[in-house]
Amino acid sequence: MNNEIAVLSDAAADNNNIIIHAAQLATLRTYSMAEAAAIKCSKPVTMYDSAPPHENPRYNCAYNQPFLTEAYTCGTIQIPYDSDPWVWECRSKSRLLDRIMEHHLKDSVFLSIDIGAGNGDWAIALGSFAPKSLYAVVEASPFTYQGMYQNLATNAGLIERVYAYNVEAGSPEAFAEYDGNTPLFDNVSGAWVGPIACVSSGPNIYLTDKCPASKAPVPILNIDHIMTDFVSISSKNEGGRAALFYLKMNLEGGDYQALLGARTLFSSTETRPCYVYIKLQGDNPSHEEAFHLLRNDYGYTNFADLDSGEKASYPPQGRFRPNEGNYEFGLPPAEEKACVERVQQESTYELR
Predict the structure, then answer these.
(1) How far is CA 6 from CA 96, 125, 138, 220, 297, in A?
(2) Does the structure show a pLDDT above 60 at 76?
(3) Can you give the pTM of this predicted structure?
């Protein structure tokens, strides 16, 4: 692995005639490995210890094969709620762990992408369980991103397998005013002048008038941009090629727009993920649009509300929170089988 995180590769990412090159994207490279070593937790907390007053160990959930124990966080990594305090990570992560074991991928090299990574709990939990897996984590809030990076840096051997992007995943419409001749970077300063999103991040750490004082501007990229880079740079750095096994998304309302920016990824049987994990709210128009896009346009017709245990159930039954469900989307059986076989075939090389 090279010593830089979150830099787009020299191979161009071409989406809607928007070409982005690594040499220009230095502003998206937030931390280096040397800086990561300096921000490790001084007193890390074992992720799988019980969290008083709750009795169940975090992330072990009810899964019958515990995670590895060498995974740490800088403090409480998720706020518990309602009767099942770890419903989001337990129910969704447990199903994903089952899939990894079912398809014999625990010790294999495969790709994963987390859109709305928060403080990195999925990458830490799944990365410790499948120690050869590679991750792209996308988090828009600079404040949350910094905490996530600290959590990742604290776990030995994990940060070397994670590419972290401090950007917002948006739709192609964000680039409607741009074309192949429109610069995305200032020719003098090299600063990003492409589309931005104003995201909540505590104080406006960039001290710019582009956003209100309580928000910070961050670049917008499509998932297709990010995946083009992730596949290219991970293949270059690891000495081989791996395939995308799953995509996880939790954007609290921007899911549909982000999925529109992944049309190239989902349109090819050679690049699409085998599974999608997403939290949907029945009273959220963007989530309803995301549901129909995944099922009708992208072909993920085999879906289940993991909270209720019901297959092909939408809107969510809201077993743990009103109008909310944590979903797994899968392909039809024959296509799922072909997708998994592709991931298995492309996971045979060894990490350097």
Answers:
(1) 25, 20, 9, 14, 30
(2) no
(3) 0.83
